Amino acid sequence: MKAMLNDLEKILFTEEQLAEKVKEIGKQISEDFKGKNPLLVGILKGSVVFMADLMRSITIPCTIDFMAVSSYGDGTTSAGAVEIKKDLSRNIENRDVIIVEDILDSGVTLSYLVEYMGVRNPASISIVTMFDKPSGRKKEVKARYKGFEVGDEFIVGYGLDFAEKYRNLPCIGVLKPEIYKN
Ligand code: IMP
Ligand code: MG
After folding, report:
1. Is the CB of 147 under 6 A from ligand 1?
2. In this predicted model, what pLDDT tens digit does every residue of 146-159 receive, in sequence order?
3. What dihedral angle (degrees, nearest 10) is formed by the CA atoms of 80, 53, 2, 9?
């Protein structure tokens, strides 16, 4: 943990702040989807930590699935193209789909996924994202639920990586520039 924390310039959100926010979102989703059985679709790999916390803060019945897509290389900027690496494991027809994403940045990934799932006749599609980086937006995407807005900086932790590292950091931090410039 110390080695990872050493690579951070600053901590943006503590473990406690993240946990509190996820509880709020879970409560809201439980109210909004009462009497329904929403399908949470986590986008791998970044959403795993958020997904694990969020599903346990949802107090109504729900099911989960995952998709894996890639729009990023190992760097910190979007490549612009989306490739499906793992598809949905079940039909989403007539389901209330909630896409669970770690961070909404350019919107390329989510706008693609909304379109991709939209043609499969779900009852509804909503987006929940733990972080929103409005400054990065290239495609218009609206998240129904969001945790925190972040500025134009690259964040890691709570599932979010830089070159596959730091996903297991329990807090959210900003990397020292020398880490990603190397
Ligand atoms: P978008 O398609 O540009 O909205 O990118 C979404 C994906 O880019 C996220 O699921 C993340 O994997 C990655 N990403 C965007 N910004 C950050 C960041 O600040 N830290 C880590 N990953 C990020
Ligand atoms: Mg990533």
Report:
1. no
2. 999 999 999 999 99
3. 50
For the chain, helix (H) and strand (E) counts, in that order, are 5, 9
CB of 132 within 6 A of ligand 1: the answer is no
pTM value is 0.95
Q: pLDDT (tens digit, 9 = 90+) per residue, 102-135?
A: 999 999 999 999 999 999 999 999 999 999 999 9
Q: Which of 9, 131, 160, 161 to mutate to test the pocket of ligand 1 (most atoms within 8 A of CB)?
A: 160
The structure tokens listed for 40 are: 């949470």
Q: Please list the residues that pair with 99 across neighbouring strands.
A: 41, 127
Q: Is 78 in the pocket of ligand 1 (CB under 6 A)?
A: yes
What is the DSSP annotation of 24-88? HHHHHHHHHTTTS--EEEEEETTTHHHHHHHHHH--S--EEEEEEEEEE-SSSSEEEEEEEEE--
Catalytic residue set: 105
